[in-house]
Amino acid sequence: MKYTDNFSKKINKLTNEINTADAIIIGAGAGLSTAAGFTYSGERFQKYFSDFAEKYGFKDMYSGGFYPFPTLEEQWAYWSRYVFINRYTDVDNGTYKKLYELVRDKNYFVITTNVDHQFQKAGFDKSRLFYTQGVTK
């Protein structure tokens, strides 16, 4: 199969590059967290935010972040749950841990817009992470 052969060659080439690299820079955005299971709509949204969806009519967590809640109490109720679900609840299907296993013994550095702390939770050294969105302590 031509498609499988080409894909296998690319995987082998990437594996060789990782194994022989002096240093690795990882650039990651929302797609990596989505691949790891961090979806902001659909079943996961309904599981954790169906009450907000019913009351306010938004269809995903992202939209809820911009919703003009009528009170600060409702706004902070939303945001506190959002932070809890997306920062402290485990979702990663192994994507971040597999990436870490590929680079753990390498001189690596991560530049990311993801502030869900999945790199840290997977074992990446905090001093090797640069978040271009948000602040981490």
In a few lines, what is going on in this structure?
The chain is mainly alpha-helical.
Structure description:
The protein is built from 7 helices and 3 strands, in the order αβαααααβαβ. It is mostly helical and 137 residues long. It folds into 2 domains: 62 residues, Rossmann fold (3-Layer(aba) Sandwich); 51 residues, no CATH class. It has a 3-stranded parallel β-sheet. The protein is elongated. The mean pLDDT is 89.
Uncertain segments are: none
Q: Report the mean per-residue pLDDT as an integer.
A: 89
Shape: elongated
Question: First CA to last CA: what distance?
Answer: 49 Å
- The domain tally reads 2
| Strand percent estimate | 5-15%
Number of strands: 3
| CATH topology assignment of the largest domain | Rossmann fold
The largest sheet, given as strand count, sense and whether it forms a barrel, is: 3 strands, parallel
Spatial sequence of strands, sheet with the most strands: 1-2-3
Helix content: 40-55%
- Tally of helical segments: 7
Question: Structural class, from secondary structure content?
Answer: mainly alpha
Radius of gyration: 18 Å
CATH superfamily of the largest domain: TPP-binding domain
The CATH architecture of the largest domain would be 3-Layer(aba) Sandwich
CATH secondary-structure class of the largest domain: Alpha Beta
Order of helices and strands: HEHHHHHEHE
